[in-house]
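My current task is to audit a protein record that another person submitted. Alongside the sequence sits a line of tokens, each denoting a local backbone shape. Where you disagree with what is written, explain briefly why. This is what I was given:
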Amino acid sequence: MLKLSEIWVYPVKSMGGISLQEARVTDRGLELDRRWLLVDDDGLFLSQREHPQLALFQPQVVNDKLRIAHREFLESIDLELRPIFSASNQKVKVTVWDDTIDAFEVSQDASDWFTKLLGLSVRLVYMPDESKRKLDPDYAISGDEITSFADAYPFLIIGQSSLDDLNERLREKITINRFRPNFVFTNGMAFEEDFWRDFTIGNLSFVGVKRCDRCVMTTVDQEKGIVAGKDPLKTLAKYRNFGNKVLFGQNLIGLDTGIVSVNDKIKVFTHSKLKY
């Protein structure tokens, strides 16, 4: 029996994740997932691809606040979990890949705090509910689906067996946080999620729409905030390279809203007929 074993959210894109026992599925992803973002002076998003030290920022929810702590500097900042903006807040246009998205700067104090610790000029922004970032129409279901500041899709799922298969090929084992999934499941075969189309987690329906192609971000040690060599990307490229893309995990769209919990049953109803 397929079972949901881990749930993860990453409140600030490209920073650390929070492991949850249950989470609310919303129209743009899991609640809190990638609603905050660091951008440069031109509004372009920052990620671990160019700034691996972002992994050193670890979020947690404390007393209804989002606390971001830096592992090395031992400093932290508390943010409102559901910020309310007024005319005094600066509305900004930010860019994530090919998308231009409306956001608000959280506060000058927050931007200054991250600027100080990173040593480069950045702003912390938040995606309000009224900001609707639509999915690539080539992979949408209705055409109205939206997502957060995630790279492209609301959810990502990976099987524990897929990670186990990879770790058997690596000199040094890695953890699932290299791949930043929202959902991890157990009791399946390695890479079976590649072909999932229609399935449920608990009582909620999802659709697998695109296998996830991986980049150099998987080489960042999430504990040290440094590039730790060429693996796992180098090893994955030897047996998971399809069309010059290294694939690991499946991007999803959710059809319902509600709660998912660790140990929820997963039922797969249809499989993709597409080849790699």
